[in-house]
Amino acid sequence: MGDQHTVETATGTISVDELGATSMHEHVFTLNAELRINYPWDEEEMVASAVEQLAEFKERGISTIVDLTVYGLGRDLPRVARISRESGMQIVVATGVYTFRDLPTFFRLNEMSRPGFIADFFVREVEEGVGGTGIRPAIFKCATDTYGITEDVETVIRSVARAHRRTGVPISTHAHAASQQGLAQQRILEEEGVDLSRVVIGHVGDIADLEYAEQVLARGSFIGLDRFGISINGMHAEEATPTDERIAIAVELCRRGYASQMVMGHDTNVESDSITREQRAVMPGLKDWRFTYITDEVVPAMRAQGVSQADIDQILIENPRRIFAHGGAY
Ligand SMILES: [Zn+2]
């Protein structure tokens, strides 16, 4: 496979030059699929809400979001494709498994009886599409949180690494920043022969720890400053990082010359079974957690603090283009 100048989206193949300004870590919905079977929601109301929010984000100049919703988070690609068509927002979709500790039974038992099952499963989704939809994921996702590299988490990371090398499709991670899980992920990916410049280590901007950021950057990966709008640290409310500190980190990293390795996002969603809209409205630290926070607040603040428009364009346009314009399998 030669150089790849096209990228798959929920609604078909586009040139990487058509990605435009891209938010690299978002979700349309994060759900528990079984819960939704037993407790159905108002599908039309939810879709309409998503269409409205993503159309608003697109009006602000963001033309693509990367939806990192994978197994464990209730991925539903026909729904995402419909929302993309109706909102005009291009959506790159992912495959992978989101777990902090144990694999879902389906993956665990199949991997036990047929080692390599999970990597093959990921490759098949990328090459042939998901189910009968024809929709092909264009990025792999794995996650490591406070439990660290459990046996099952390691299986996911190694499976993602192998599927990445067989397809060339890039990798994006959830990595608990305070326990420096990004470095542990890089170590395993490197053991699998992964070129770390084709990996986005997520959630590095969750903590005001430039040393951690620079260690991840030194090994060549992109870093995700990808939870803007949250002023608690993801699921770890005790590690509070207010927005002004998150912006200060971004500004300082640009000043140190790292704009070519940074990507941004909110990691938000229209609705989540873990933090519902009702909960979000009353939870401290989440009032700004919405699409458009980057465009309305973060970018203007970075500009006001001396970050050049060239660096902003590098982060929002050029880096996503480079991540998806990959060099193929290796
Ligand atoms: Zn996420």
UniProtKB/TrEMBL annotation:
PROSITE patterns found in the cross-reference section: PHOSPHOTRIESTERASE_2 (PS51347)
Keyword check for Hydrolase: yes
The keyword Hydrolase is annotated on this UniProt entry: yes
Modified residues (N6-carboxylysine): K141
Keyword field: Hydrolase, Metal-binding
Pfam family, one: PTE
PANTHER family noted in UniProt: PHOSPHOTRIESTERASE-RELATED (PTHR10819), PHOSPHOTRIESTERASE-RELATED PROTEIN (PTHR10819:SF3)
Family the UniProt entry places it in: Belongs to the metallo-dependent hydrolases superfamily. Phosphotriesterase family.
Descriptive protein name: Phosphotriesterase
